[in-house]
Write the structure tokens for this entry.
Amino acid sequence: MNRTKGDEEEYWNSSKFKAFTFDDEDDELSQLKESKRAVNSLRDFVDDDDDDDLERVSWTGEPVGSISWSIKETAGSSGSTHEGREQLKSRNSFSYAQLPKPTSTYSLSSFFKGRTRPGSFQSLSDALSDTPAKSYAPELGRPKGEYRVCSLERFRSLQDKLQLLEEAVSMHDGNVITAVLIFLKRTLSKEILFRELEVRQVALRHLIHFLKEIGDQKLLLDLFRFLDRTEELALSHYREHLNIQDPEKRKEFLKTCIGLPFSAEDCAHIQDHYTLLERQIIIEGTFSSPVNLKKTFKIPDKQYVLTALAARAKLRAWQDIDALFTTKNWLGYTKKRAPIGFHRVVEILHKNSAPVQILQEYVNLVEDVDTKLNLATKFKCHDVVIDTCRDLKDRQQLLAYRSKVDKGSAEEEKIDTLLSSSQIRWKN
Amino acid sequence: MAFPHRLDAPELPDFSMLKRLARDQLIYLLEQLPGRKDLFIEADLMSPLDRIANVSILKQHEVDKLYKVENKPALSSSEQLCFLVRPRIKNMRYIANLVNADKTAGRTRKYKVIFSPQKFYACEMVLEEEGIYGDVSCDEWAFSLLPLDVDLLSMELPEFFRDYFLEGDQRWINTVAQALHLLSTLYGPFPNCYGIGRCAKMSYELWKKLEDEEDSESKGRRPEIGHIFLLDRDMDFVTALCSQVVYEGLVDDTFRIKCGSVDFGPEVTSSDKSLKVLLNAEDKVFSEIRNEHFSNVFGFLSQKARNLQAQYDRRRGMDIKQMKNFVSQELKGLKQEHRLLSLRRCKLKYKSQFTVLIPALGRLRSENHSRHYLKKPKNKNKNRDISWPLSYAPALFFLPSGLIPKDYRSLKTQYLQSYGPEHLLTFSNLRRAGLLTEQAPGDTLTAMESKVSKLVTDKAAGKITDAFSSLAKRSNFRAISKKLNLIPRVDGEYDLKVPRDMAYVFSGAYVPLSCRIIEQVLERRSWQGLDEVVRLLNCIEFAFTDITKEDKASSESLRLILVVFLGGCTFSEISALRFLGREKGYRFIFLTTAITNSARLMEAMSEVKA
């Protein structure tokens, strides 16, 4: 490609824009070229930085053997001292005042720098370029005069702006698309911007993501409203609550969410969320009792028991657990019942390192004899094993188990007593 | 063990060069701020940085103190501050707060921000808005390829997945193109290029554009790597969401391999210290078992221990040097493995995840049983790990047209009750990304579809928006799996010790779709004959081949294949392709935006910060 010629052309094409006369000689080709060039220079701004850095150490394309790898390697340990623990000491020397954001957002200029090839034109924006670019360039130690500010300011007609956007989209680089969108957001009324983006999905998604990231919630909600995306609107609004720390404010905020156009099922969840917070705030009293919560939020039995059991076990509140499984029948007799099955109760208790006495109690409640025996063996509930063998009249198994208990222990003695007992009719 | 490399396997290029390059560039950038300075590092960059440089290198270049970028005021007293960060808005706000606090206090310092791997306009816009543009100088550290292993390059950009596949933001495409450009500059051009997916196509186009713009010196070079294959993660969510059963994948699912190493807490090491273990090909024992189905690992390790005992008995015959060698290499690795192993045993006991998924895969054959998956999660929805129940999503995923509304609702309600109502945002994201769907009456869908396609005029976007294409993709999974024979018919037991196909990575039940696509295309050297699959994947516009006649490519280089996973790849996929390589005499090199697994994918969908 003949660069010099191309650059000359660019010079003439662009110089006409110097005087802000978009309308003379408005042929599409030159316009297209202009937006193409602008988009490219936006990208160059990113690319050339790399290349420059690479060039400095002569990396570009050069066979790697030529790189000076003379940087000394110290055989230090691969330090993990990155934690910066020093921070913890001697704090509070600053007041961390957050300055208010400027209300008129960057309206004066948004200059995007790019590097021109040697002998390129001086654009209008060069004249406007001020300190940021200049102080930037020497920082990197680059030769003077090699930089220019590529400004998008010259894209003033809607048609030019849209062309610029389309060019950016066809380049695929999201960073450039966002850069153009930032410019469009600043120079177009939001109605026009929204209208044009509605039919440009790729660009639209970039704008939505950008607004989410910078936290421009107001514009984001306006956009969803314009697009008639009511559910997204509601969800976006609801999402705000994650940033609110104060429980009371959070609750108040959630209240504002209740009427929003969520899907039918989400409406119920939002209502639940609000009710839940309301209750959390009233900490004391029957409202916050687990049983009450269970009723209000229609939590299934199994789920409730699993949660309560694990929580109580962690606190080693064995009596509560006992109560959890105790049911009274209509005659007033108490009975132990576990909707999840006692074998799972035992597993969960074991996971939470419950003592053997407690485990034993629940192993005993396992209905299936084989499961019971297995669990008892696994968790060393000797008494249960021994009693079960006795009930099964399984002499052989009892004999086998004798080797598993400690010598001279009470368990061994118990087994011996049983084995020598004439009361039992062993089946084997 | 079944995994020695073939004798005729081609040599891998030396990727350690990339580390040196990154390090040199960082040093160059640090020298741009001469004199003593404090360095603020973003947490996510610490592990990658650790892999290429160490503290003493930083100290040599006048870095005084190191701080972590976090939400706390910085207490540095240095006159020069340097920030090494990812291009994120929150980092810009952090820096702005710091600089503005200095300004208020009447303090002047020098500030430099080094963005890695590149800077974004949105970041600069924030600097401008906060009134500190010009007060800070900005630079880029194009460190986008970290060699995690001899055949594995990671861009360490987990956010790529969410940014592109959920938000539709194409900001990382340039980074990918730059990385590929760097590779072709260093390792010569790629004569054969293949790809599938919208992102793959865009990255490819931008990359080619970069090459064309530069008078690329790589053009005259001999290619070192014969093929490149680009693949979008959304071509195959299923594989990424499956529970992993190959050893390395299992370790990743259980302990999270971070930047090529894993931290074992006190409960694993059975001492009060935690232990950081680097997992790569240099660890001999590990490299022997990493690709194995976990059921083989126990046997292997105990065999190994017996051998070791035997060797140990022979130690009397060794001289000191041999002995040293023996102790440092074999014994050390083995001890670690043993430690790992003892823990694995107890973990596995209650880890019933696989038992859920794999039968689920088996059941795919009979259509009506798909609802059975739902039974397990119902009883299990309490576990400490947030991502756990949601990782059942793959099972749900298989349902041809999404969940029936009743099941969807009950699953969601139980989840929200267990983990907090704010997770309804997570569900909304899952649906938006096409990872979870509810059956919709057919006519509503088509009406909506036609409405949307009328609205969309973006050329690049094609006629259908992403949301709808992924919707269609999912419902096609059954057809694709039939077409590509992803669920092999098993006669009798599948011998996991002697794997016969890539399905071994999922206990013989399922061949990873992503790997099968790659296999098929490489066999044909094109997409020819795969039209139906491409159509079912909704990728007619986004499947491409670009073959240049290349005389200079050696036969050795033509057996090296670089696979680029856009949006992350799993260790299971890596193992499967390593297996394929051994079968066919290829060697695969993996380039991924990040290592992923089902938990990571699900977390990426969450709005709630842990």
Summary: DSSP finds 27 helices and 14 strands in chain B. The first strand of chain B starts at residue 37 and ends at 42. Confidence is low (pLDDT under 50) at residues 343-401, 441-473 of chain B. Chain B touches chain A through 101 residues (CB under 8 Å).
